[in-house]
Design goal:
- The complex is a heterodimer of chains A (193) and B (168).
- Chain A has 9 helices and no strands.
- With 193 residues, chain A is an all-alpha fold.
- In chain A, α1 packs across α2, α2 crosses α3 and α2 packs across α4.
- Chain B is built from 2 helices and 11 strands, in the order ααβββββββββββ.
- By secondary structure, chain B is α+β, with helices and mostly antiparallel strands.
- The chains are: A mainly alpha (193), B alpha+beta (168).
- At the A-B interface, α2, α3, α6, α7 and α9 of A face α1, α2 and β1 of B.
Chain lengths: 193, 168
């Protein structure tokens, strides 16, 4: 699909190869797989609203589950999708348990997504990124989370995301499109991309 | 691209470009902790060497792994935890009876294992055996963040199976 981020297919391919090598008995391949995919899992898990330490736990649990049940994944190319789905499901379960999966109020959004990155974030964004960040912050909270998840992983399981964001199944495709359109409009208003 | 309403030329990024940019900005704003990968690798290494970590697959009436207050409705309350291992399933029931908590459970398929229950900071774990019906019981557990460990004494090569910590 032309909509998918261009670099992701290679991540899928590389992870499939590493996974196959690990299953063939090469334990270092698993280390490389962990290095390759953990940053993506982090984004997916954090999008569910978990704090740093809970998110780290979820990423860890996800990998341990893979180590324990890796034999059950028939198709190596499914490994990245399997990991992101497991991570999202576990993150959702944890945030539901701790009551963190509440509808997010405007002020919470404002705190999480300030117009400009808060000083404590200690990141310096260049002009383009800072404009994009500010535009993202103007989107509805669901759009922000959905785009973060969709951007981080290449092949989202739409029915699972729909459950998490409490949207009817089937509306995610168009919803993603609408969120992207909103972002485009914000960017145009802010002076282009 | 020409904007239909204004007629102006306006560069509109396509979905892929936009999503890539979104992924990049999140990566800058909320990068993974520097020790994320090391933590995962350490957990996998520990797992490989020492024990099989059981996975919590279901909870009923409980906030497993999260501190919770005692059930408010009465002095008595029960909640269930269900764990899955490589080759067995373990059901754990916690029942609050007045000021103590009883922990009992059963193992499917039935297997005679010895069981330890240890709370953080507790010196000596409580110990019991799984009976021929697959059941075990600790009549009065120590409150706190606890783990159950299952040992197969008939098979020295088998690694102990451990639950993730849960609150009693």
């Amino acid at each position: 699909m032309s909509e998918l981020p261009t670099e992701t297919p290679s991540v899928w391919e590389v992870s499939a190869r590493l996974f196959e090598r690990w299953r063939a008995g090469e334990s270092e391949a698993l280390d490389d797989l962990v290095r390759l995919l953990s940053p993506m899992l982090w984004q997916v898990v954090r999008a569910s609203g978990l704090d740093h330490s809970a998110a780290e736990d979820v990423v860890q649990t996800t990998w341990l589950t893979l180590v324990r049940s890796g034999e059950s994944i028939a198709e190596p190319r499914a490994v990245a999708g399997w990991l992101t789905t497991s991570a999202r499901r576990e993150a959702w379960r944890i945030s539901k348990q701790s009551g963190r999966q509440q509808p997010v109020e405007d002020e919470t959004i404002a705190r999480r997504l300030p117009d400009a990155p808060a000083p404590e974030l200690q990141v310096v964004l260049d002009d383009d990124n800072s404009r994009l960040w500010s535009c993202l912050g103007k989107l509805p909270e669901r759009c922000q989370r959905l785009l973060r998840i969709v951007a981080a992983e290449a092949r989202p399981d739409y029915s699972a995301i729909a459950t998490e964001l409490d949207m009817p199944v089937g509306s995610i495709g168009p919803t993603r499109g609408r969120c992207l359109d909103k972002l485009r409009r914000e960017l145009a208003t802010a002076g282009g991309f | 691209m020409v904007d239909q309403r204004t007629g102006e030329h306006n560069e509109q990024p396509d979905d892929a470009t936009l999503l890539t940019a979104v992924a990049e900005v999140w990566q800058l704003v909320d990068p993974p902790p520097v020790d994320l990968v090391d933590g995962v690798l350490a957990a996998i290494a520990a797992e490989d060497l020492e024990f099989d970590l059981l996975i919590l697959v279901s909870t009923d009436g409980a906030l497993a792994g999260v501190r919770h207050s005692a059930p408010e409705e009465s002095d008595a309350g029960a909640w269930m935890l269900e764990y899955e291992g490589r080759d067995l399933r373990i059901y754990v029931r916690l029942t609050r009876i007045e000021d103590r908590v009883r922990v009992d459970g059963w193992v499917v398929p039935v297997r005679t294992l010895s069981v330890q229950l240890k709370a953080d900071g507790q010196d000596e774990p409580l110990q019991t055996e799984i009976d021929e019906f697959g059941r075990f019981e600790f009549p009065s557990a120590t409150p706190g963040l606890s783990r159950l460990t299952f040992f197969d004494e008939s098979d020295e090569s088998a690694r102990p199976r451990v639950t993730p910590p849960f609150w009693i």
